[in-house]
């Protein structure tokens, strides 16, 4: 069953009753189709009404503004009453405030020059042990290495 859904074509007028329903729906935070249906209109009817009579749109804006003012008053009164969470939320959302986020790191470390040199010397020895040194015959030159040899030809 449908409740209070308008089915017949109706004349659209921004009567005080219609404007009051639009205002109340907007004050409760409704938007779009929900606002239209709560105000007793189809969404298409409400869209046409706003086009035909700007007062309907003003009633919606006034409902939103009054609701925002009432909620802001609650938050400000709570913050002024000592509610630090309400104060922080108000600062964040209304004044784009952000708490400073700093990290301080103190690192104190002593470096021994002799220990650093010993570690460096050990690394050099490990690298020298790992490197395989290839020796070339002294008779070969880089040009001779790059040139292919013919069969039977001596270098």
Written overview of the protein:
The protein is an all-alpha fold and 155 residues long. It has a domain at 16-95. It has helices at 16-27, 32-38, 43-52, 54-80, 84-95, 113-130, 142-146. The longest helix has 27 residues, at 54-80.
What topology emerges from the helices and strands here?
Blueprint: H1 16-27, H2 32-38, H3 43-52, H4 54-80, H5 84-95, H6 113-130, H7 142-146
Helix pairs in contact: 1-2, 1-4, 2-3, 3-4, 4-5
The separation of the N and C termini measures 105 Å
Based on secondary structure, the structural category is mainly alpha
Helix fraction, binned, reads 55-70%
Main β-sheet: number of strands, strand sense, barrel status? Answer: none
- Indicate the overall shape: elongated
What is the H/E order? HHHHHHH
- Low-confidence residue ranges: 132-136
What fraction of the residues are assigned to beta strands by DSSP? under 5%
What is the residue-averaged pLDDT? 80
User: What is the C-alpha radius of gyration, as a whole number of Å?
Assistant: 42 Å
Enumerate how many helices there are, as a single number.
7
Number of E-type strands: 0
Question: Could you name the key traits of this structure?
Answer:
single chain, 155 residues, mainly alpha, 7 helices, 59% helix
Summarize the structure.
The protein is an all-alpha fold.
């Amino acid at each position: 069953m449908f409740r209070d859904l308008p089915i017949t074509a109706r004349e659209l007028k921004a009567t005080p009753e219609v404007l009051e329903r639009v205002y109340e729906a907007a004050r409760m935070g409704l938007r779009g189709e929900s606002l239209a249906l709560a105000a007793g209109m189809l969404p298409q009817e409400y869209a046409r009404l706003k086009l035909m009579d700007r007062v309907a749109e003003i009633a919606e804006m006034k409902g939103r503004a009054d609701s925002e003012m009432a909620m802001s008053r609650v938050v400000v009164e709570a913050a002024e009453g000592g509610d630090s969470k309400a104060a922080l939320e108000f600062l964040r959302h209304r004044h784009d405030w952000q708490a400073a986020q700093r990290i301080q790191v103190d690192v104190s470390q002593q470096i021994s020059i002799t220990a650093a040199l010993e570690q460096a010397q050990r690394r050099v020895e490990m690298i020298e042990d790992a490197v395989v040194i290839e020796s070339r015959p002294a008779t070969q030159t880089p040009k001779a290495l790059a040139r292919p040899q013919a069969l039977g030809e001596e270098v």
